[in-house]
Amino acid sequence: MSIHDEMSRRTAIGAGLSALPAAGAWKSGNTKPLMGAGEHTYEVHHDWGRLPDRIRWGNCHGVVEDSRGRIYVFHTVHRTSISTDAMVVFDETGKFVTSWGSEFAGGAHGLHIEKEGSEEFFYLCDINRRIVVKTTLDGKEVMRLGYPKESPSYPLDAEGKPAAKYVPTNLAVASNGDIYVADGYGSSFVNQYDRNGRLIRTFGGGGTKAPGSLNAPHGIFIDRRSGVEEVVVADRSNNRLQYFTLDGKHSRFVTEGIQLPCHFHFRGGLMLIPDLAARVVLLDRGNKPVAVLGDDSASDYRKTRTQPRESFKPGKFVCPHGACFDHSGNIFVAEWVEAGRLTKLRKV
Q1: Measured over all CA atoms, what is the biggest interatomic distance in the chain, rounded to whole angstroms?
Q2: pTM for the predicted model, two decimal places
Q3: Would you tell me which of 12, 48, 76, 273 could form a disulfide with 281, CB atoms 3.0–4.6 Å apart?
Q4: In CATH, what number is assigned to the domain containing residue 156?
Q5: How confident is the model over 153-208, as pLDDT tens digits?
Q6: Residues in the chain with pLDDT < 50?
Q7: What distance in Å separates the CA atoms of residue 240 and residue 254, rounded to the nearest whole number?
Q8: CA distance linking residue 233 with residue 245, whole number of Å
Q9: Containing structural domain, residue 173
Q10: Residue 322: strand pairing partners
C-alpha cells in the first residue's frame, strides 16, 4: 500500500466514511480531478491564473497570498517571454492584476510575505545575484542583504572577494523581526540577522546527517503551532525536516512521509510541504502525515519537468517547489517545470 492510500484510509476512518475518492479520481459530472480524501479533499485546477500574452512562465518557484486575497507568483521567466517581469499578481478569481521585478528574471527563487505593523512586505531570494531583497508589495526595495562576510563561515579571499559559496534559497522571519536566511544552494548554513540586517549568528552547515548539520537547507519557516516559535528547515538533501531553537540549537528531526522537502506554509494545525518528488504533503500538529496529494513520485518526474505541459498528467504533480494556503483553506502550488505551472487545489 502506498503512503497516499494509507493516508486516505486513515482519513476516511477518522471521518467515519466508508468510501472516499482517491487522489486523481474523477467526480461524476465534473471535469476536474480530485486529490486527497475526507476533510483533505481538493478539486484540481491546473494552470490557474490568466497570463497576458506578453508573459510566459519560467520555473515557478514561490507563491503567496496577501491580506487582500491577491496571489503572487515568483518565477524565473521563460526565454520566449516578451516581458521579463518575475513577479506576477492575480486577484482571487485568477484575473491578472499586474507584474513587476524584471531585475529578478532568471534568479527568482524564495518568496516570503510578512506583515509588519499595518504594512506587508516581501522578502525575496535571488539565486543569480545571490542576494536577499526586502520590498513593498509593489516592488520598491527597502533593504538588501548580500554575502554574509561578517560571519567566520563566509571568509573573503586575498582580493576581498567571497571565498565561500553562497546562494540563498529561502528565508523566515520571527515575531521579533529576526530574519533567518537559508543558504540552500551554497554552503548549507542558516544566517540569522536582526530586523535591520545586522548578522547575529550562523548555524547549520556541515553537509552531514549529524544533528545540527544541514545539507541543502532549501526551505525555512517559523513554526508557531506549539505556542513556542521554532525554526523548521527543509533539509532537502538529507530527506528530512530539522527543527532548531531561535538561537540555532538543534531540537529534533521529522522524517516520516518526507522525501525532498522544498518549503513550508501553515494554517491552523496543518503544515503544508511542497515536495520536489512529485507530491504535496500535509502534516498534522504532531507532524504526522494526514494527506499526500498528487503523488507521482514513482514516475521519472525529473525528465517530465522538461517536457511540454501537454505531457503532464491531470491530477498529478511534477515538481512542487512552493505552496501556500489561501484565506479559505485552498492550496496554491508552484512547480519547478520548464513550462511553468501554477495549480489551485480548491477545498471541497
Answers
A1: 69
A2: 0.91
A3: 273
A4: 2.120.10.30
A5: 999 999 999 999 999 999 999 999 999 999 999 999 999 999 999 999 999 999 99
A6: 1-29
A7: 6
A8: 11
A9: 3-15+32-347
A10: 334
